[in-house]
Amino acid sequence: MGETFAEVTLRANGKEMKKRILVDTGSTFTWLHSDTLRKLGLKPVDKDEFETIEGRIVERGLCELEIECIDRKTSTWVIFGRRKDSEVLGLHALEGLRVEVDPVRRKIRKLKAIKSL
Q: DSSP readout, 32-82?
């Protein structure tokens, strides 16, 4: 099917950073490298265990930040990834942004209507 990337703006503590990250609808949460989050002045507010794509269980910190993509904003949980962890935009953020993946064009697009049932 191919990979889909999204241009996002990350905001926290009056700071802002633009990034191009891989969209992963199989990941519940967004993962960003710890260095990126620390540059935005963020620290983990909690820890939890997560199962990686390889089936490993890892403990990582998490926090909230604002993400903007195609003129939509949301506050979302983000995992503090290590250097070997992939940076991905996860399903929780996609739903909060009210966007979906266009698999043919491999782009993010606004939902035409939000399903509420």
A: EEHHHHHHTT---SEEEEEE-TTS-EEEEEEEEEEEEETTEEEEEEEEEE-
